[in-house]
Design goal:
single chain; about 600 residues; alpha+beta; Phosphoenolpyruvate Carboxykinase, domain 1; Phosphoenolpyruvate Carboxykinase, domain 3; 9-stranded mixed beta sheet; 8-stranded mixed beta sheet; 17 helices; 28 strands; binds oxalic acid; binds manganese (II) ion
Length: about 600
């Protein structure tokens, strides 16, 4: 019980009450120290959850294998239990809070017996920053604790900041006890897939998560707190909590500008944040890859912090070509989950850039007792799960920006929206105004990926890449974004849409992407400087082919033109899809967005 002396009275009372409910064998405070991290990793090895990778090839790194029934975020089991159903809005599952609490309490009752409950204090954002906020997660998963250590600022300095009565977000997580035995997974990856529930109580600033040990279902700091709860709070306090990367771009004259970008999960956000320059004299640096908290400063500029301190990136198709800096981040001190294991004790995944060495073991074959193959997406089974991940520290990222940890944040010049669209959406365009930009963000769409459980490759509207993460009524969220357009004295960032994924008639990507995306960032940078051209088109301002720096690119002028083409018929189809989508979001969608849609139709001209 000596941990109690570090907790303020409110926190201690909550820990005690939770321990009474969940009945752990032990309660331990995670102090964030290296020794405690090392001890938990050793425990995870002992229980069979972790395998230590070769110390020569991948120092201080581990491979975890999850239960095959627990490999991605479960959106259909995620709930926003605000007092009023309308507050949660049409994009969230809702259950009346008291009913949900009763249901969850019966699941939590005794759910930690035989296990330790860890108390993990953490700060989202630099400790002490006025934009940062504190959370505490109570969890019976040592895997969660070590991942949080890599991805947030954890430990005693955070408790110190809380002081005697500081406010914190309450996050309760239990892997649960499955009703059916899951064989060896009972010990190596406890979970209760049949009864998983990830539940948010926004008015009480509280998250309860039961039954899953994976990613955003269990690392409650990330999607649950830093996006769902924080977006709700940001609306009340006039700031923004967004699913955005933050990247710094410096030109040859040493002028630096920062851009924030929202892309749906697994659409290249991390690659863009860590992009390697392909242009002489231009530099690109990383502030964050997933979650930006932003607030307008006294000077009218929008300042952003990275709410996290590490990366939880998708492994498949990450390579020296797609993301050299991410590969370097994972050279050491990394936790891999559900990737394949080579006989040399290293990791492997599809698209890593080399063939799997003979004897490489698939993610669910090496450690599973039954060795049963699990069909993935009806295709030939990949060796790494399509949503396998790496957890790496920001401080190990070679491209990390000098200001990544600056408590004031970095000033944002431009906001980028992007998704995977094989047709219709051009390589890049600039919104005509703030409200047009909000329209572009609100109607963002992408072909789905493996980051969430469900079908891959279907077109889905994902407003601001926040569809699974907006913690309140999405119509009010749009209104919140629009409201900045009416405020005096703000230097509003420009807004862009990009699409790296347009395909030609041969079904191949038109734009070479990866580090060449800097050519598009360069155009945006120069637009912000007022020095780059922009053609007025029905969808927005676009570069003419000559405005994109193609020096050394080797892309034919025809292909570049195809990247930039606007097909009126495609856009008329798009307009119809957008209208249906916005109408489906209920009566809180601001009229302004329908006006923007009408303007777009007007600009496209008669049929
Ligand atoms: C993530 C996601 O894990 O968006 O970042 O799914
Ligand atoms: Mn994400």
């Amino acid at each position: 019980m000596d941990y109690l002396k570090f907790l303020h009275a409110g926190l201690a009372a909550w820990v005690k009450e939770t321990a009474e409910l969940c009945q752990p064998d032990k309660v331990e405070l995670f102090d964030g120290e290296d020794a405690s991290y090392g001890r938990l990793c050793a425990l995870l090895i002992e229980s069979g959850t972790f395998r230590k990778l070769s110390q020569e090839l991948r120092p201080n790194s581990f491979l975890a294998e999850s239960d095959p029934a627990d490999t991605a975020r479960v959106e259909e089991r995620t709930f926003i239990c605000s007092r009023e159903k309308d507050e949660a809005g049409p994009t969230n599952n809702w259950v009346e809070p008291q009913t949900m609490k009763a249901r969850m309490k019966s699941l939590f009752a005794g759910s930690m017996s035989g296990r330790t409950m860890y108390v993990v204090p953490y700060s989202m954002g630099p400790v002490g920053s006025s934009i940062a906020r504190i959370g505490v997660e109570l969890t019976d998963s040592a895997y969660v604790v070590v991942n949080m250590r890599a991805m947030t600022r954890t430990g005693l300095p955070v408790l110190k900041t809380l002081g005697k009565s500081g406010e914190f977000v309450r996050c309760l997580h239990s892997c649960g006890h499955s009703e059916k035995s899951r064989g060896k997974y009972d010990k190596t990856w406890p979970c209760d897939p049949e009864r998983m529930a990830i539940v948010h109580f926004p008015e009480e600033r509280m998250v309860w998560s039961y039954g899953s040990g994976y990613g955003g279902n269990a690392l409650l700091n990330k999607k649950c707190f830093a996006l769902r709860l924080a977006s709700d709070r940001a609306r009340d306090e006039v700031w923004l909590a967004e699913h955005m990367m933050i990247v710094g771009v410096t030109n040859p004259e040493e002028k630096r500008r920062y851009f924030a970008g929202a892309f749906p999960s697994a659409c290249g956000k991390t690659n863009l944040a860590m992009l390697q320059s392909c242009l002489p004299g231009w530099k690109v640096e990383t502030v964050g890859d997933d979650i930006a908290w932003m607030r307008f400063g006294g000077d009218g500029r929008l300042y952003a912090i990275n709410a996290e301190a590490g990366f939880f990136g998708v492994a498949p198709y990450t390579s020296a070509k797609s993301n050299f800096n991410a590969m370097r981040c994972m050279d050491k001190d990394t936790i891999f989950t559900n990737v394949a294991l080579t006989p040399q004790g290293d990791v492997w995944w599809e698209g890593i850039g080399w063939d799997a060495p003979e004897g490489t073991i698939g993610w669910d074959q090496g450690m599973a007792a039954d060795g049963q193959a699990v069909p993935v997406l009806g295709q030939a089974k990949p060796l790494a799960h399509p949503n396998s991940r790496f957890t790496a520290r920001a401080s190990n990222c070679p491209s990390i920006d000098a200001n990544w940890d600056n408590p004031t944040g970095v000033p944002i010049s431009g906001i980028i929206f992007g998704g995977r669209r094989s047709t219709t959406v051009p390589l890049v365009y600039e919104a005509r105004s703030w409200s047009h930009g909000v329209f572009v963000g609100s109607t963002l769409s992408s072909e789905t990926t493996a980051a969430a459980a469900g079908q891959v490759g279907k077109l889905r509207r994902d407003p601001f890449a926040m569809l699974p993460f907006c913690g309140y009524n999405i119509g009010d969220y749009f209104a919140h974004w629009l409201s900045f357009g009416n405020m005096q004295g703000l230097q509003l960032p420009r807004i862009y849409q990009v699409n790296w994924f347009r395909k030609g008639e041969d079904g191949k990507f038109l734009w070479p992407g990866y580090s060449n995306n800097l050519r598009v960032l360069k155009w945006m940078f120069e637009r912000c400087e007022g020095s780059a051209g922009g053609v007025d088109t029905p969808v927005g301002f676009m570069p003419s082919p000559g405005d994109i720096d193609t020096e050394g690119l080797g892309l034919s002028p025809e292909k570049l033109e195809k990247c930039l083409e606007i097909h009126k018929e495609d856009w008329m189809t798009e307009v119809a899809l957008i209208r249906t989508f916005l109408l489906g979001l209920g009566d809180r969608v601001p009229n302004r967005l329908f006006k923007e849609l009408a303007y777009l139709v007007e600009r496209l001209g008669p049929r």
